[in-house]
Amino acid sequence: MTPRQVSRPTGWRAIEVFDGDRGYAAYLASLSYYALCLALTWWAGLRGQAGEQEG
Fold first, then answer.
1. Considering the domain boundaries, does residue 49 fall inside one?
2. Model pTM?
3. pLDDT of 20 above 50
4. Contact yes or no for 42/33 (Cβ under 8 A)
5. In angstroms, rounded to a whole number, what is the distance separating the alpha carbons of residues 25 and 20?
6. How many whole angstroms separate alpha carbon 16 and alpha carbon 10?
7. Quick check: 7 pLDDT over 90?
8. Which run of H or of E encompasses 3?
9. Distance between CA atoms of 17 and 10, rounded to whole angstroms?
10. CA-CA distance, 55 to 49, in Å (whole number)?
11. What average pLDDT does this structure show over 39-53?
């Protein structure tokens, strides 16, 4: 690892990596992770509403 890479902020490094296929895969992975969290939150909300109606 060169000193130049160490001194560079992580965000800029991620943007540079985005140019390659690995960056695209990382973008899809983060997008999928966000969608999964959103779906889990939505599902938990539905279950919570259903539980309140039953009780």
1. yes
2. 0.48
3. yes
4. no
5. 9
6. 10
7. no
8. helix 3-7
9. 10
10. 10
11. 87
Spatial distance between the Cα atoms of 13 and 11, rounded to a whole number of angstroms? 5
Read off the amino acid at residue 50.
Answer: A
Q: Give a three-class secondary structure readout of 6-54.
A: HHCCHHHHHHHHCCCHHHHHHHHHHHHHHHHHHHHHHHHHHHHHHHHHH
34: nearest Cα among 23, 46, 42: 42
Establish if 46 belongs to a structural domain.
yes
Tokens of 6: 């160490």
Total number of domains in the chain: 1
Residue that the structure tokens 């599902």 belong to: 43
